[in-house]
Amino acid sequence: MTMSAALGLASGVVADAVRAAAVIDVEAFKPGNVSVASAGHDMRAEDFIASANAFATVIAQPGLRVGERILRAIEATRRVVTFNTNLGIVLLCAPLVHAALQPMPERRLRERVRGVLAELDVTDAELTYRAIRLAQPGGLRVSARHDVSSTPTVTLLDAMDEARLRDRIAWQYVTDFEDVFGLGASVMRAGLARGRGTEWAVVSVYLAFLARFPDSHIARKYGDDFARSVVSEAQGAAEIWDGADDPAQAMPALVDLDRRLKARSINPGTSADLTVATVLVAALEDLLDRVYHEHRTKGARSSTVAG
Predict the structure, then answer these.
(1) pLDDT tens digit string along 139-191?
(2) What's the CATH number where 99 sits?
(3) Which of these, 92, 109, 77, 98, lies nearest to 282 by C-alpha position?
(4) Chain-wide mean pLDDT for the chain?
(5) In terms of residue numbers, what domain contains 212?
(6) Residue 174, CB half-sphere, CA atoms under 13 Å: how many?
(7) Would residue 207 count as lying in a domain?
């Protein structure tokens, strides 16, 4: 039995995928979030596009550890904006990027991610804590153990495990990105299969997260009960969206939800972060499939020539 080749993606290809995922996040109309069609929360779509352009190449640089990818991405972002636009995106993208770049025999991205998460150490935690302090996310709570203001004494995975019940991004780290590879990926595939296009599939993914899980960003600012009430509020719009034959039919419900959320300064940031990660996963999986197919094709040709 022959061993599978250890293959990875090129840095530039991964950077392009990260940038595209972060940009389409603001091109899509996601109620409560900043988009090209709807500014809010004292931010504009241009701020998020500038952030995407600033961090995409940095996070995909070869030869970095996961913690370095996170810190350098936030440092690059801070050079173009003075407030937090993408901490959650960076925290989610870094392990995905790292897994795609590394030469590994595993073809499936989630298997690669599982291995990357298992190898996170205290240095990754220290670098990530520095990135979080630099980003200054709104509503960050003080933790009795492994608080980001302290010097970590545990691995990044252990620190995420401590936060998993109050932070849906931390939950991804300790479940091998369960929500992204599960709910997010299935909704993305279904949305694309309906022929609506990528932008509309992105809206479907976002609404699925918003209508299923209390948003961690909302919970940090307003409390868990309030975050659960937003889930109920989003379910109506999600049902209308999913049942519409034409996206235009559902837009009034989405516009109304967007208006109501922004009127109360409610920004479902974690749902948006998970959406970006889902879009990135779809792109990286396609790219990995292509690389392995090309490798097999070249191998078959070499065998034919040798024969």
Answers:
(1) 555 444 556 777 899 999 999 999 999 999 999 999 999 999 999 999 999 99
(2) 1.10.4200.10
(3) 109
(4) 92
(5) 11-296
(6) 17
(7) yes
